[in-house]
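Colleagues,

Please find the record for the two-part complex below.
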Amino acid sequence: MIIATNVTKKFGRLVALNNVSATCNKGECIALIGPNGSGKTTLVKSILGMVVPDSGFITFNSKNILHDWLYREHIGYMPQIGRYPENMTIGQVLNMMKDIRSKCSNYSLDEDLVNAFKLPDLLKKRMRTLSGGTTQKVSASLAFLFNPDVLILDEPTAGLDPVASEILKEKIIAEKQKGKLVLITSHILSELDDLVTQVIYMQDGNLVFHKSIELLREDTGEEKLSKAIASVMQKNR
Amino acid sequence: MQKIIKYVITDILRNKIVIAYTLLLLIISFSVFNLEDNTSKGLLSLMNIVLIVVPLICIIFSTIYVYNSSEFIELLVSQPLQRKHIWISLFAGMAIALTLSFFIGIGIAVFIYSFTPTGIILVGVGLILTLIFVAIALLAAVYTRDKAKGIGIAVLLWLYFSLIFDGLVLFILFQFADYPLEKPMLLLSGLNPIDMGRILILLKMDVSALMGYTGAVFQSFFGTTYGFIITILVMLLWMIIPVSLSLRKFKRKDL
């Protein structure tokens, strides 16, 4: 579904992505793992077209995304740090997004998360008054709101309380079972254990490996994802 | 695209600055006309305000607004929207809000007290200057990531167009006083939209006789329909070029 080919991105002298190639298919749940500053968020933002690669290209459903924008109607994106117009209320933000997407071909609403996070009680609150966790809840609700085929979640559970992160996790599993592609970056590996089917490991802008979780377990001899990754990190040091 | 413009305008109206700007212009324009018996003197005072205050407020407000809506832009970029549409809508939203408030603030008073060709030109020049300085603000804001730096550049640009440029022109005039400079002066004034606006208004006021031979050359160019159309076109270029340059940059900007 999403194919990145030789994507390179430099910020000044820093190489954020170095010749990264990856293939993501329908029904997979892929974990993007790597130390801080390894280029995970840059890769995710390149897929969304928010960062324009210096070289290489990315295709979505075998169409180059460079001059396309409609493909984004198939993507639900939850940013690491959600930034929203400060003067708007939650209700206004939700309505604005619905308004913007209302012309899309596959417009259908999925308000499960909005209701599960009890956002209808907070609709009148302004975005600048929200706590980090509530902002994350809004981000998550927006990502799932339009029933997208692809979910890109950047550190989804950071800042969420245990109840909310459990709700989100169940939602992710439910969507995965509907055959959607889910891309997650996270540092809390223990949470990913029962979610992911594939692992992409990145370091210093390089894609170190991309394999299925079974293969990773076999290679490292560890059952838990966190221990498997730890042993990989040790080896790479 | 209309939807984004709608959201930009409601957001601008919500932060009251534009309303304060409208009131300020209203107070200035009505008091200027009530202070002077002679409406053409009133127009002259109003011209100075239009040529100095309007560009300043437009460029600073727009620059700050672009920086403050970075969250809004970021949110929209991850949606199925074309970047071109987002940027043009941002420009259109600010331009509509500011031209509207200029029209209410200055236009009404001018049309009540002095509904003459000079008055209409004054309002027209003010409207075009509003558009031009919103466009220049977009350019200043898209090229610098740092807010303080961006606003500083905007203020410098305003200073350049309203003060420094005239100083440079005077300098050139004195240095090359022995040469006939009337024709080059025409070209030189095309490099500054505020100057072009000033010349257009002054020539309609029939004070060009005070400007000597240069004034006569200006009159023979700007005074004709042909010259008038060329001037308006050059001023429109002053709007279109910054917008398209900033758009080109924004299309490839990392957010």
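The two ends of chain A are 33 Å apart (CA to CA).

Comments are welcome before we finalize the supplementary table.
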